[in-house]
Amino acid sequence: MRSQTEKSETEQAKGTQLLDRSVALLNYLGEVGEQGARIQEMAKALGLTGSTAHRIVSALERHLLIERETSTKRYRLGLSLFALGAKAADGTGLRRLCRPALTRLAAQTGDTVFLMARSGFNTVCVDRQEGIYVIDSLTGHIGGQVPLGVGSASLAILAYLPPEEADAIISANAHLYGAFDHLSADEIRRQLPAIRERGYALDQGHLVAGISALALPIRPQGRDVMAALAINTTSARMPAEQIPELVASIAREVEIIERSVNPLDLVSRRRTRSIAKEKVSIAAD
Q1: What region, left, alpha or beta, does residue 214 occupy, with left being phi > 0 and alpha being psi -120 to 50 degrees?
Q2: How many Cα atoms are found within 13 Å in the side-chain-facing hemisphere of 247?
Q3: CA atoms of 203 and 215, how far apart (whole Å)
Q4: Which among 128, 162, 167 is positioned nearest to 149, based on CA atoms?
Q5: How, if at all, do strands 201-204 and 211-218 pair?
Q6: What confidence score (pLDDT) does residue 90 get?
Q7: Is the pTM above the cut of 0.70?
Q8: Helices (H), the chain
């Protein structure tokens, strides 16, 4: 009996380890982006043997979570994973709710507008709408992430979290900040009171020379801060005298979004959809 229990526990541990390695491999491919990576490169980066990396890659490719370019033998994230990500991003209805705001702001300003939301210790790009003037961002694409505290949208979210929680996040991410133009945890902490006082976060070329970003948090009544709307553009297109007008434009859209979100509304909508699917399934039977 004891040996069977020990065997079961060992198998469970191996299964958990394999899952952790699979997730690490997906995260790695997400980081290298469109250039992709060969199996040997993934194995080296993740400290895996070639055979282990090959087994994981084969399984992920079989489930269409990654795909291989035949000519180069390099692997990239698959479209099935993108589809899952899109469903996850709109699992609460946030992306669908905010899409009109992104479209209007991009049309009005001509700049790229982002919807950013918290994901653990990071900020993830849930949606974006390009304007006439297209520039790169820190997240790079929908699904891209940066540590909480990096960038205007990330700061706008962090500033409105409970102080103890925000401080814990900053401490946990402190070792990551140096990669962003020598940003520090102390510098991020110093910015938060001013952001809360004025109601928005502004980066005027500090993180990326010549690029400015402005973000406002989305804070529906009765809920914690749930996301942020941000505009990224060249610093030349965001002079100081234009900032009040941009803040007002984003604030109008944020107000519309916040009014549309009842504390229980998103949950009830998901339940309604679930009940409707169950009724359809029962009717089909």
Answers
A1: beta
A2: 14
A3: 9
A4: 167
A5: antiparallel
A6: 60
A7: no
A8: 2-32, 39-46, 50-62, 79-89, 94-109, 152-159, 163-177, 185-198, 243-260, 265-284
Find how far residue 259's CA is from the centre of its chain.
23
Q: Which residue from 157, 143, 124 is spatially nearest to 227, judged by alpha carbons?
A: 157
As a residue count, the chain comes to 285
Q: Which residue reads 């958990």 in tokens?
A: 16
What would the pLDDT profile of 91-136 be if each residue is shown by its tens digit? 567 888 999 999 999 999 999 999 998 888 988 888 899 888 877 6
Retrieve residue 83's tokens.
């589809």
For 126-182, the pLDDT digits (tens) are 889 988 887 766 666 777 888 999 999 999 999 999 999 999 999 999 999 998 888
Q: Provide the token pair at 89.
A: 């991003």
Nearest by Cα to 17 from 52, 54, 65, 51: 52
